Amino acid sequence: MQTNETPRYDASDNPTGCCPRFNPAGWDGAVMHFEQKPFVRARTHSVMHVPIDMGRVFGRVQRAIAEAGADRPEARLVLSRDLSPYTAEHLFAVDRPVPGEEMTTLSGDFRARVFEGAYAKVRNWHRMLAPEAAHGPDDVWFFYTTCPKCARVYGRNHVVGVVRTAGA
């Protein structure tokens, strides 16, 4: 895979008009190499890890990304991780700076692993991925490929675990 590229994301298969149906082909086991890959960083609030303002925050960020022309639907990736029971961090992959939003970058090798199941299983998936993490459990993120409503419609809830590795 080329530097700063992600596995292909087919945004055209979108019968709900909300979240595209996720095709896990090419994602499980994929190794991504990032060198100063740009991301928009946003935070959401939670109550004991249950998000309370995710829709509002994601809507704002996605509008800003679209207005900046920084979205590549075929390379969509939003990395999320809980910073505490009350705050989560989300990194939206972009290909250029997005005015008005906080920017950050990631560098290193990242391995993807596809899981399927309810949000409640994330704790177990995190434990499975953490031993691979280059610098510990803070190097584990999750890409929630569909919202809960779309996951119900599709009958599947794919979640991609992404871990920064010491040398993937």
Number of helices: 3
CATH class: Alpha Beta
The gyration radius over C-alpha positions equals 15 Å
Counting DSSP E segments of at least 2 residues, the number of strands comes to: 7
Distance between the termini: 12 Å
Give the second-level CATH assignment, the architecture.
Alpha-Beta Barrel
Provide the CATH topology: Multidrug-efflux Transporter 1 Regulator Bmrr, Chain A
Which class do the helix and strand fractions yield?
A: alpha+beta
Which regions are unreliable across 5 or more consecutive residues at pLDDT < 50? none
Tally of distinct domains: 1
What profile does the largest beta sheet have? 7 strands, antiparallel
SSE pattern? EEHEEEHEHE
The CATH superfamily turns out to be Regulatory factor, effector binding domain
DSSP helix fraction:
10-25%
- What does the overall shape look like? globular
Mean pLDDT, all residues: 94
Task: Write up what this structure looks like.
The chain has helices at 54-67, 122-129, 148-154; strands spanning 31-47, 50-51, 78-84, 87-93, 102-116, 140-144, 158-165. It has a single domain (31-165), classed as Multidrug-efflux Transporter 1 Regulator Bmrr, Chain A. It is α+β, with helices and mostly antiparallel strands and 168 residues long. Strands 1, 2, 3, 4, 5, 6 and 7 form a 7-stranded antiparallel beta sheet that branches.
SSE inventory with pairings:
Blueprint: E1 31-47, E2 50-51, H1 54-67, E3 78-84, E4 87-93, E5 102-116, H2 122-129, E6 140-144, H3 148-154, E7 158-165
Antiparallel strand pairs: 1-2, 1-4, 1-5, 3-4, 5-7, 6-7
